[in-house]
Amino acid sequence: MSTVLIVDDDDQLRRSFEKLLLEEGYKVICAASGEAAYPIVCGQAVDLTILDVRLPGMDGL
User: Fold this and answer.
1) Which terminus has fewer CB within 10 Å in the chain: N or C?
2) Exposed e or buried b for every residue in 23-49, given b needs 16+ CB within 10 A?
3) How far apart are CA 2 and CA 11, in angstroms?
4) Domain range holding 19?
5) Would strands 27-31 and 48-51 be described as parallel, antiparallel, or unpaired?
6) Closest Cα to residue 38, out of 53, 58, 10?
7) What is the pLDDT of residues 11-57, one digit of tens each?
8) Contact 46, 26 (CB under 8 A)
9) Confidence class of residue 59 from pLDDT cuts 50, 70 and 90?
10) Count of domains forming the chain
């Protein structure tokens, strides 16, 4: 099973992506900020990241 990390500060958008990907059979991990996503990518393998470029604090770049 492929793992997708969704990083977005927009709760509604993040939940929409999560619901769609779960229905397609992906394992989904969500984070609301770059700071929250950083330990996730350092601690486990992620196959795809959907990343908002304009995040407060640590941005997507």
Assistant:
1) N
2) eeebebbbbbbbeebeebeeeeeeeeb
3) 22
4) 3-51
5) unpaired
6) 58
7) 999 999 999 999 999 999 999 999 999 999 999 999 999 999 888 88
8) no
9) confident
10) 1
